[in-house]
Structures are given as C-alpha cells and as structure tokens.
Amino acid sequence: MKNYRYLAVFNRFMRGRDSMERKIDEHEINTTVTEESGCRRVITVEIARERFTDEQERVLAGMLKKVALPGFRKGKVPPEIVRRRFSEEIQGEALKAILPLAYGHVVSTEKLEPIGDPVFSDVSTEAGELLTFTIEVEVMPAIEIDNYRDMKVPLEKIEVNDEEIDQVLGNLQDRNAEFEPVDRPAVTSDLVVIDYTPVRQDGTVDEKQRVEDFPVELGSGQLFPAFEQAIAGKAKGGTARVEIGYPDDFKPEHLAGKKNTYEFTIKDIREKRVPPLDDAFAQKMGPNLKSINDLREDVKKRLEGEKLREAQRKREEAAIDRLIERHPFEVPRSMYERFKQELHEEDRRRREAMGMEPEKDEEKRKKLDEFLGQVAQRNIKRYFIIDHIATKEGFEIPDDEIEAETVRIATESNRPLEEVKKYFQRGTENFSNLKGRLRERKVFAVMLGSA
Q1: Do 190 and 114 share a structural domain?
Q2: Contacts of residue 127, Cβ cutoff 8 Å, sequence gap at least 6
Q3: Continuous H helices in 176-271
Q4: pLDDT by residue (tens digit) across 100-122?
Q5: Is residue 414 assigned to a domain?
Q6: What are the φ/ψ torsions at residue 372 (nearest 5 degrees)?
C-alpha cells in the first residue's frame, strides 16, 4: 500500500500540460460526495485500473523519447527496462496527471463551486483493480436570498451645529497660520527651531548624533513634556540640558525604560499668527466665496455631505445585517481563518505604528481573537450576499460606467483625468476594486429602493 499527499496539484498541473485535451469518461470513474461541516466536501474517488494503466503508458511513451542509459542511445532504451528502472517516477507522473483530471470531472458532474485548492489524500494504487483516493475541498456556501428589494431601513437624521462649523473654521485658520520671527522667550504655540545632541555618561556630547534645525511647535506634543518645558521661557541662542525618561514600551526598543540627557540650543523663535475669520480669509478659501457667511455655509454643506454619506453607509450595513439574520449560512473555514489572520496582522501594524507592544494579557488576546473572528464572519457573509444579489439581478459594469466614474473621481479630487485613469488601469487590483464598488452600489440601490 502506497499513500501520497498532493497539495494544489490542480493549479500546478494546469500550467503547461495538455489536460484540456484529455478527460475521464463516466465508465472509468466512480465518486461519492459527502457534505462535512460548513462548506467542506469530502469526495471518495475510484478509477478503473485500466484508465490508470493507460495514463502510465502515456507517461512511459514520453520518457522513452528522452531516456538514455549506458549501452543504449537516447530514445532507444527498451520499454521494459525503462518501466522497471523508473517505475516510481512513471507512477508519480501518472498520478500528477490523473488526479487533476478526476478533480475536474467531479467539479463538472457534481456542479461544485470550489473555493481554493483541493487536497488529495489517501491515494492507493494497490486497491485491487482500482485506483482510489480522497479529495477534500471547500465550496461556495449555498445561499438563497429573498425579500431584499425595497427594504425599509430608516436613514438617521442629519444635523450640523454651529460648534462643528466653528471647529472646522478653526482648523482652517490653524492650517493657514503664519509664523513670524520674534525677539522674546519662547511660549506655547511658538515654532521653535533647535539643535540637540545626546549627552554621554561622562558629560560630553555625542556630536555624531547631533540633530540640526529641528522644528518644534510648543504645546503640540511633538516632544516629551519635560523637553518642551525646558525649551519654554528661553530666548534665541539659549542652551540647556534636559533628562528624558522613556517608558518601558517605548519604540525603538533600545530606548525603552532608559533615561537619556540631551543638550539643546535654540536657533530661532517664531510666533504663530492665525488669520482672522473675515471676508478676506473666506475669499482665500475658494473662488466662489465672497464673505465669511459664504464660507460658513460652504463648511456646513460639506459637513452635511460627509454626515449624509456616513448615514447612508450605516443604512446599507444595517440592511446587510438584516439579511444575514434572516438567511443564516456557514462560511468557508479557509476564508474565515485567512481573513481573521489578516485582521490580526492589521491590528499588529496599528499597535506598532502607535508605539505599542503586542497584547500580552491572555484574556484580552482571547477577546480580541473572538472580536476579529466576528468581524471576519460578518464581512465574508456580506461579500457572499452582495455577490449573490448582483448575480441574481444580472448586474454588469459596462465600460461607459467605468469611464463616467473615473471622470467623477477626477473632478471631485481635482486630479488630472489621465492620472486617475492610469490609477484604475484595466487589469489592476484598483480596477477590480472600482468595478466591485460600482456593482455594490447597484446592489444597495435595489435593496434600499433607490434604483
């Protein structure tokens, strides 16, 4: 009894082989499909011994043209010698050919919709007169969604108050502030330019690590509070030393938990001068704005647009959640595990960017895994539901809709149309994502009655 295990045989086989020209006939194969948990299918396969023998003879015929052994010219070695000398290679190549053919036959006759690669196992070439093996594969979940048209999902009320408008205007002022040189000690909100150098334990400075012309806006949190406090109150040309204690989880790790002293010199002090909120400021913010009231109204409309888009997104997701609740189905385990792992990796990158160490508390890690698992389950179901409805409705995205969308994106983002078209070039992931968004937009239009 010999057993072989092949992973992703089908994909590898399809590259450069002639399998499309050959097939397995009905009388040569017997299959039994068993539904396991979720979307997993286990298929037992029996192939007539004569069919496998024919496959080995085909492999042998190919080898006879290439094999050269001592005492024989290339292509002139007797078949029985090649068969005996390379029996394992012949059998292995025949298996690599016939297993994918059998898989293709099963997919076609059983009308399976596989997800991912099949796994072949328990391959036996000595089971009486039969070649037997098992195929494990995950398939698309069986979904049938009804009552998805014109769903009554309320849109939350949109309101923009004066405080929100004032906050945006304040941000605009801040971004358009100018910094003017002043001859006085530094205070909060000043832009201070410094040189600083680490101080060695013997009290000398490390000139090799000197940083020059480093800008700091006092009060912005760019530096440790102790460093900003040491700078505040000092005039141009002032110098001092400050000791900084780094937290235990600080990044980079070579500074974590340590105390370092720095010597700094103030090279320049500039006062932040915020422009007044008047008609002149409004006119700088847009060619169609004539007064501060125009600017306030423009900000209000933009905020309303942002809130409306967010409210619409929530409405769409609420509709999806209703369909998920009404039409329960299981998702492929491999998709679930893969997506959850991607979410964990995203969380790891986020924590690293924030200078945080990986979560060490076992209970918190367990809760995070459960949460990300729920997110993965829900998003995979969302994908299948949208795809099911789009297929059922026969939604396609013609070229003119792609063209119109790229024009809209270019106009709203104020970017050259050719640049946007290049970004969404056909055949790229960006192009696929754009088509997916347009297809999804059509699905939600049907679901929420705005088609």
Answers
A1: no
A2: none
A3: 225-231
A4: 999 999 999 999 999 888 999 99
A5: yes
A6: -65, -30
Residue 399 lies in a domain: yes
CA distance 30 to 18: 23
Residue in the block written with tokens 């409405």: 315
Is residue 185 located within the same domain as residue 246? yes
* pTM for this prediction: 0.71
Domain check: are 244 and 331 in the same one?
no
For 44, list phi and psi in degrees, rounded to 5: -95, 135
End position of a domain, from candidates 252, 273, 294: 273
Any domain includes 293: no
Flag whether pLDDT at 269 surpasses 60. yes
User: Do 325 and 395 fall into the same domain?
Assistant: yes
Window from 11-15, 22-26, 332-336 with minimum mean pLDDT:
11-15
Domain boundary among the residues 218, 247, 273 is at 273
Structural element, H or E, at residue 398: none
Q: Would 67 be classed as within a structural domain? A: yes
Residues 113-157 pLDDT 10s: 998 889 999 988 875 578 999 999 999 998 999 889 999 999 999
In a shared domain, residues 400 and 322:
yes
Calculated CA dihedral for residues 71, 77, 80, 85, nearest 10 degrees: 70
The per-residue pLDDT for 306 is 95
Element (H, E) at 102: helix 87-109
315 and 439 housed in the same domain: yes
- Contact between 59 and 90 under an 8 Å Cβ cutoff? The reply is yes
Total structural domains in the chain?
3
pLDDT tens track for 240-258:
999 999 988 787 778 888 9
- Beta-strand relationship, 40-48 and 29-35: antiparallel
Contact 308, 436 (CB under 8 A): no
Q: To which residue do tokens 């898989």 refer?
A: 103
Look at residue 213 and give its three-state secondary structure: strand
Per DSSP (E only), the strands in 28-82 are 29-35, 40-48
CATH number of the domain where residue 369 is located: 1.10.3120.10
| Separation between Cα atoms, residue 375 and residue 396, nearest integer Å | 28
Q: Are the C-beta atoms of 190 and 268 separated by less than 8 Å?
A: no
In a 10 Å sphere around its CB, with 0-12 CB exposed, 13-18 middle and 19+ buried, how is residue 385 labelled? buried
**48 and 134 in one domain?**
yes
Burial class (CB in 10 A: 0-12, 13-18, 19+), 331: buried
Range of the domain at 351: 308-447
Question: Are 186 and 234 within 8 A, CB to CB?
Answer: yes
